[in-house]
Amino acid sequence: MTSPFGDKRLWAGVAISIVLLGLLFRSVDPDALLRAFRGIRWEWLIPAVVFTMLGYVVRAVRWKYLLSPIKQASFANLVSATFIGYMANNLLPARLGELVRAYVLGEREGIGTGAVVATLVIDRLADGFTVLLLLMATVFTLRLPPGSETAQQGLVAGGYLTLALYLAVVVFLVLLRRNTMGTIRILERLLKPFPNGVAEKVIPFLGAFIEGARLTPHWKERLALVGTSIIIWGVALLPVYSVLRAFGMNFPLSVSAFILVLLVFAVMVPASPGFVGTYHAACVYGLLVFGVPRETALSVAIVIHGINFFPVIVAGLACLWRENQSLAALGRRAGMQNTHAEGR
């Protein structure tokens, strides 16, 4: 088995994180940075942490509905696996947290890991569509300050590009579900110009995905999936808004939505575990558009990242202790499953 620490993608991500941190701290006045931290209104950080943790609990609620066609899983197990998975995403390389999350729940509930992973793919798609709605709302409601016309145009272009991408994904998934073999044959022809190994990985994955990816047939549960997705990202806005208020910034909620969308895109960029650097850069450059001083913007980024980083790690470690599990062991098992999947 290849260790994830030997993965070239990991070290490329670490290099990106180091470069971005260097750029962010290069022209920062340390005294101004300390003054920004001293001016924090700490009472605003309590709701920021509460809403962050509440978001993970609502994610467990949505996951329960996604799993309902397979099994009525214990809510306690869903919450525990969610905390452990997101903790692992912050600490382990190669973003193994999703596989850790699937493995933990699969072990506790006696469900095949492949079927659980399929529900997490749908989970991510639901996130994508909800973020798309948030992005489109931001594009058409937020007006950036004068002199930011290029950024405004980029925001609009990004909205339309993301919309086109997700519409293409929806069309592909509908075709895959209704005419699985025909869609796979078309995909095989499209993949012919690529090395054989690409098709050998993609085609079996799609077959396993179709087997495990089943939405609940009950309309009430489908509406609950939509409702929980909206709640998840509505709740995700509130920590950003609270931290901005903690630094004395009384921006409208649309600015928090703008920063949140940038953070979502930032975590897609290769980075070190915990998304260090990319997360901070997205927040800093987003706030600079609104005339926030660099030192204040960087202090905001550090606090927002810390709120999204440390509390879930504490909760995840508590769940590991309760279940008598080891993060290192879970990481090895998830890495083995990932290597096996890539080798098939």
From TrEMBL:
InterPro entries, per database record: L-PG_synthase/AglD (IPR022791)
Entry's localization field: Cell membrane
Membrane topology per record: Multi-pass membrane protein
Keyword Secreted in record: no
Transmembrane segments: 42-61, 125-144, 156-176, 223-244, 250-269, 298-321
Naturally occurring in which organism (per UniProt): Geobacter benzoatilyticus
Keywords: Cell membrane, Membrane, Transmembrane, Transmembrane helix
Name under which the protein is recorded: Flippase-like domain-containing protein
